[in-house]
Amino acid sequence: MKSVNQEAVEQDPQQLHEDLHDIWGNPKGLKALTIVNHTTLGLRFMITGMVFFLIGGILAMLVRTQLAMPDQDFMSPEIYNQVTTMHGTVMMFLFAIPMLEGLAIYLIPKMIGARDLVCPRLTSLGYFCYLFGGIILTSSLIIEMAPSSGWFMYTPLSSKEFAPDLGSDFWLLGITFVEISALSAGVELVVSILRTRTQGMALHKMPLFAWYILAMALMIVVGFPPLILGSVLLELERAVGMPFFQIAGGGDPVLWQHLFWLFGHPEVYIIFLPAAGIISTLIPVFAGRPIVGYGWVVAAITIMGFISFGLWVHHMFTIGIPQLAQAFFSAASMLVAVPTAIQVFVWIATLWLGKPKMKLPMLWVMGFLIIFVCGGLTGVMLALVPFNWQVHDTHFVVAHMHYVLVGGMFFPLIAGLYYWLPLFSGRMPSENLGRWGFWLTFLGFNGTFLIMHWTGLLGMPRRIYTYEAGSGWEIFNLLSSISSFVLSAGIAMVLLDIALHFRFGKPAKHNPWNADTLEWANTMPPSAYNFVSLPNVETRHPLWDDPNLPHTMAEGKHSLAVASHGRREMWGTDPISGKVREIIHLPGNSWWPLFAAAALAVVCLSLLTKVYALAGVFVMIAGIFLLRWSWENGAHPKAAPDAGVKPGDPPLHSRTMDGPGLWAMGVFLIANGSFYLSYLFGWFYLWTVSPEWQMPETPPLSLILMGAAGVAVLAGCGVMEKLVRGLRQQRDAGLGAGFYLAAALGALQVGLTGWALWQAELAPTQTSHDAVMLVGLVYALFHGGLAVILTVLQGLRVGYGYVGAHAPFEPGVVTLLWRYNVVTFGLLIAALAVLPRVLGG
């Protein structure tokens, strides 16, 4: 029997191409909205991101026009505040992260030798959530109801007292909607990188870009939930009066800053890491040699990811935190310079030891190195507490942020776009237009923001809409504004070059840059299925070590070169070694992601207009769409029309106990756990810090009822564990009845928790204590109810023959949720019912 490494398919390559296209091809017309292919969705993310970038750029030009001269009345103070808030919001939330995620969605499967991402419908849901959320948020500009409290939405400026209109609500609901998209992509990318690399591509052999994206995606999974929690709490405060951030009710406005910057500072590195991944990909190609210190770069990526979560108070040095905390976070802020410096020295060493070719992408790489190093130096300056006190909330901070974010993200992004343009289009970019675009952008950028360091040192505050003549800032602001228009001209030149090249660019030869990574083994532009056959890759530079590899892959001389079964399939591999474990079969095009995202958009609009009954109805409709989506999985005929595999091939993932859905649920629960830990942080923070926190003399939660509910969920989890153990031993007798028993125990937990909530007689609009307690109990009720519904569905699927000893995969996924519920409910009992009795107020 042949192994997967020895598999060779003797058939007509052209016919194989056509058969695969029939399975993977994208539909036209209205059905294009059902596409789940990563290539199309990655392009949609990037094109939509560029549209939002143009909107954010126009807003930036309005700001610079207003500040060009003193005593300007080009914009009123109210409109100026809306414009500055939306500029930062659009650039950070609607451009930077989605654009980089879109690039990763497009490239990662091609780089790791896969045919698609592992949860393609999740990618589609993420795109539509991003699109609808962005439209809702930016529409506030058109009706002059945009948020005006700054892109960081500090309370109490964003609270009902100082922002009574809908601007803050647009921000909170729109951003939360967009965050769903970011988390979806984060989960998708983590699981895809770990579990779908082509056979032989061990973790230490995968491209550095994949390492950077893996770190970015994990940071999104952990870093975004605190902001989602903060947004939910602030919207509850604004909508129904729960005083989470109001001192008089026992809240604290500083809690918002903690929750925001727990997300906000890691986001700087979430943006930087993919950009650095582009640099680490391009420099070896144009230097003509492997990167120096691959292991050092991987270590630097890992260290940077961990350290970035210990820096959030770096933004809060002036709010009155203890000096010991200031010293700790100052040291941590300087420490992060070490892994950054490692990467910079690796890049320089690779260029020094190679023979660099100064093609157009390398011009942008060199611009990045200059600008980012300057931004890093001012970052070290801001990490020093005394200096930070002097320049906090001045234009110095604005300039530093743009050097790090624009210089550290935009320049590598354009370098990457020029580098991968031939892959997108099959044509080469124009060197002449591209160089004009670079120099105008580089000079305009430095002219705009280098000068802003000086105005900041002269004391010009940020977020002021005008200033008086004679302040000493006039000439510098004028030069900065003129330079910003030069910068805009450079960006316009770049966009013109990219647009024209699709029609007038010279046809590119195969692998025009002589690159080393697998995406260049594709056709240009690539097919919907990426590769006809999936190779065995045991080197970091497959195209350098085997230049003929693209041809043998296209001829079907490697693995999984078969289409007769009608499935979309690729390898499922070991996360460490890259050894093949199973064949992953993917779902095809689907309307469900669009329907679910549209229902959630109606929820968002209903909350904005305060039609809460309609919001509740569409929450249920969105849930129905999502559950209907989940029904077409595993052994369902639409998921695997033919369950057979060729002799010698591993089984389908739905016939194993360790498919990618199990990993997706695990990563999702990490994000969920980050949200929950942020909630517990808020509970203990207000308990210990808020000056008006009121702890009732008698704890309102019944310990008996909560304890009984805890026993019920523990028993339900025990039943699920027993059923999964039986499936591992190929036993499924009584499986359906077991699921219904577990669901009944889960329903008992929900009922007892609801009873405890009813008996507590909380007053959530009067004290933050009761408000926080209510949020925790609703969280437990939601997760308990979700576990019950999913478990009942498992019982139904047993009856339909979709789950059993022949298809044991799904119960393990649901059991992960039960385990999570046991842990979180136990922590909830300890935090809300036990500790208040032990410690008192």
From TrEMBL:
Gene Ontology annotations for the cellular component aspect, listed alphabetically: plasma membrane
GO biological process: electron transport coupled proton transport; oxidative phosphorylation; respiratory electron transport chain
Pathway annotation: Energy metabolism; oxidative phosphorylation
EC number: 7.1.1.9
First-listed, main subcellular location of the protein, grouped into a coarse class: membrane
Stored InterPro entries: Cyt_c_oxase-like_su1_dom, Cyt_c_oxase-like_su1_sf, Cyt_C_Oxase_1, Cyt_c_Oxase_su1_BS, Cyt_c_oxidase-like_su3, Cyt_c_oxidase_su1_bac, Cyt_c_oxidase_su3-like_sf
TM annotation in the entry: 41-63, 83-108, 128-150, 170-194, 206-228, 268-287, 294-315, 327-353, 365-389, 401-421, 433-455, 475-500, 591-608, 662-681, 701-721, 733-752, 772-796, 817-839
Domain of life assignment: Bacteria
Membrane-related topology note: Multi-pass membrane protein
Subcellular localization: Cell membrane
Record-linked PROSITE patterns: COX1 (PS50855), COX1_CUB (PS00077), COX3 (PS50253)
All copies of domain Cytochrome oxidase subunit I profile, residue ranges: 23-538
Ranges for domain Heme-copper oxidase subunit III family profile: 580-837
Catalytic reactions of this protein: 4 Fe(II)-[cytochrome c] + O2 + 8 H(+)(in) = 4 Fe(III)-[cytochrome c] + 2 H2O + 4 H(+)(out)
Keywords associated with the record: Cell membrane, Copper, Electron transport, Heme, Iron, Membrane, Metal-binding, Respiratory chain, Translocase, Transmembrane, Transmembrane helix, Transport
Entry's Gene Ontology molecular function annotations: cytochrome-c oxidase activity; heme binding; metal ion binding
Record-stated family: Belongs to the heme-copper respiratory oxidase family.
NCBIfam families noted in UniProt: CtaD_CoxA (TIGR02891)
Protein's name in the database: cytochrome-c oxidase
Source organism of the structure: Vreelandella aquamarina
